[in-house]
Amino acid sequence: MTPASYAYAVTRGLKPEQVAGVRGVDGTEVHLVAHRDLVAVVGAVPLEEYDADALKAKLERIEWLEAIARAHHGVVDAVGTHGATLPLRMATVYRSDERVAEVLRDGYDRFTAALDDLDGRVEWGVKLYVEPPPPEPAAPPSATGKDYLRRRRDARRSREDVWRRAAEFGHRVDAALAELAVDTRHHRPQNPQLSGARGENVLNAAYLVDAAGARDFAERARSADGAVPGIRVEVTGPWAPYSFAVPADPEAVR
């Protein structure tokens, strides 16, 4: 097997003893690659199992995807306890530690600016769901065709009203939370069949928040849950700022 370097995150001033015993994907212990004050947290993986073709096949296996996501986030969370951390995209793999050092050197200004922006800040996630409407009751045996059409029309109007209220409420929640955030990212709504969440996702946003104001942000976000019947608000965090990280180097082998 040819060794390659799986990169988890970029930070500054991290010492080897601060990540001693931290393990990532495949249970491999992580190590550090440095350039000036920048430090990349990496782990050794077999290149043959993480090249583009191998990853394409693996990413279709939900169990593997969940396992690598847990391992990746676990390393990032461990690193994040020691200072500003720039998470890299999951399955960012380079051919060697030397290549990782080159990426740090070539992107030094970009990484440094991003870490400055993220220093002392965390990410919160907020999702808004519309609860599925109750099923229509069966029409009575005596119902006419006109009755059926009226019931269908009323049901459609009811659904449209729920979606309208959800959209308006989502805009209000987003605007209120943006007041307490440094930056905001709006992600594509999640497919409930993939996420397993109940209801239809109509807002999927991430907010970059100063750590000092995280408590106020969380309280405001959670106060929105239950404010409108049929609409549920889910708040998660604080997380490492994945949504606000710079993109991984395009030369990574994935």
Automatic annotation (TrEMBL):
A Pfam family of the record is GvpL_GvpF
Record-level GO cellular component terms: gas vesicle
Name the principal localization, coarsely classed.
other
InterPro entries named in the record? GvpL/GvpF
UniProt KW Lyase keyword: no
Q: Where in the cell is it found?
A: Gas vesicle
Question: Which GO biological process entries does UniProt record here?
Answer: gas vesicle organization
Q: Can you tell which superkingdom this protein's organism belongs to?
A: Bacteria
| Disordered as annotated region, ranges | 132-152
Keywords linked to the UniProt accession: Gas vesicle
Family classification: Belongs to the gas vesicle GvpF/GvpL family.
Q: What name appears for this protein in its UniProt entry?
A: Gas vesicle protein
